[in-house]
C-alpha cells in the first residue's frame, strides 16, 4: 500500500484516523463501527499499474508509475 502524491485536495488526516482506530473497540469489546470505518481513508487501485493506493485527495499522482488519478467519492 502506497500513499498517492496529492496534486489537488486534502490528504487523509492520519492523526484523526489513529484516534478512531483506538476507539474502534470499546472497553466492553464492542466494535464502534463509525470509528472503525473512519480509521483509514479506504483504498483504490491505480488504473495503469494496479498499485494499491490510499484514497486521499481529489487529484493525485501514482508514486509508482506517475499516472494522474481523479479520486471519486466511492
Ligand atoms: Zn500507477
Care to describe what's here?
- The chain is an alpha+beta fold and 74 residues long.
- It has one domain.
- The protein has 2 helices and 5 strands.
- A 3-stranded antiparallel β-sheet has the order 1-4-5, with no helix packed on it. It has a two-stranded antiparallel sheet with strand order 2-3.
- It starts with a strand and ends with a strand.
- The chain binds zinc ion.
- The site of zinc ion has 8 residues, from loops.
Keywords summarizing the entry:
two-stranded antiparallel ribbon, 5 strands, binds zinc ion, alpha+beta, 3-stranded antiparallel β-sheet, 74 residues
Q: Main beta sheet, described?
A: 3 strands, antiparallel
* Spans where pLDDT lies below 50 across 5 or more residues: none
Report the C-alpha radius of gyration, rounded: 14 Å
Strand order of the largest sheet: 1-4-5
- SSE arrangement, N to C: EHHEEEE
Brief rundown of the structure:
By secondary structure, this protein is an alpha+beta fold. The chain is built from 2 helices and 5 strands.
Question: How are the SSEs ordered, and which strands pair?
Answer:
Blueprint: E1 5-8, H1 14-23, H2 33-37, E2 43-45, E3 52-54, E4 59-61, E5 68-70
Antiparallel strand pairs: 1-4, 2-3, 4-5
The protein binds zinc ion (ZN).
Zinc ion binds next to loops.
Amino acid at each position: 500500500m502506497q500513499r498517492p502524491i496529492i496534486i489537488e485536495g486534502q490528504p487523509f488526516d492520519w492523526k484523526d484516523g489513529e484516534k478512531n482506530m483506538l476507539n474502534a473497540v470499546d472497553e466492553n469489546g464492542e466494535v464502534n463501527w463509525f470509528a472503525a470505518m473512519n480509521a483509514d481513508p479506504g483504498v483504490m487501485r491505480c488504473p495503469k499499474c494496479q498499485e494499491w493506493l490510499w484514497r486521499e485527495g481529489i487529484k493525485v499522482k501514482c508514486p509508482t508509475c506517475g499516472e494522474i488519478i481523479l479520486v471519486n467519492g466511492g
